[in-house]
Design goal:
Transport permease protein, elongated, mainly alpha, disordered N terminus, two-stranded antiparallel sheet, single chain
Amino acid sequence: MSTTDDAGANTTGANTTGGTGETRRLRRIEPAALAGVITHDITLFRRYWPSTSFSAVVEPTIYLLAFGWGFGSLVSVVAGYRYVEFLGTGVVASAVLFASAFASMFQTFVRRTYQKLYGAVLAAPVDVPEIVLGEALWIAAKAGVYGCAPLLVAIAFGLDPTPGMLVIPFVGFLTGLGFGLFGIWTSALVPSIDSFSYIISGVLTPLFLVAGTFFPVSELPGWARALSWANPLYHCVELVRDAAFGFAPLADLGHLGALGVFAGIMWLLAVRSMRRRLID
């Protein structure tokens, strides 16, 4: 009895390699398992990338063209910038939001509920944290790329390119990581796919409208300006504008920290909720 117990205790949380008696303790995130999840996403993306890319890139670009031409003809300068420059840098955050939160919410829900994909993946040596992180990293990578589309349109309309703009895809990646994890978390909370309407209308749309994309946050009442610091999209907008027009090191560190905290919190919530749905 004690021999069996000792053997179980010795093999718990460890992986024994063939015949050598060597053991390797499993890490919380196994690189091979994580790479498998990402590779699966890339393989699927090759099949449907035209439709996904079209919706993620064109919708924010339409916002830029419509508001840039419409309001731009009435308001020439906002916060010291030409309105098309102000708007073009702000819409980057909108593109990142559309490419991350919306995609992760519906994609994760469909794969978990209808396709039963994650149940099959868990039959392999892959755990819930690796599924969540793999999905979120791939979504964040796409968001970082798609977020550059409105910026290229703004450059075509006269926005001067600067070396700092090379940082913008990384800002989009970090923001997309947080919102991708947010989408995964909420996908495990809602009882049906129709319930996403509450999240889109009650959470994402207000965040989108008061992030400083279309007008300066400084024009809002004091209490609203204070609340803007809790809006991850606001920090994304500020970082993108600073990358385009000139960095403010101390302020930008604060914005980066806020996005990092947001991603960290969403990671904990996403893993916990998905584990509850898939295992518990």
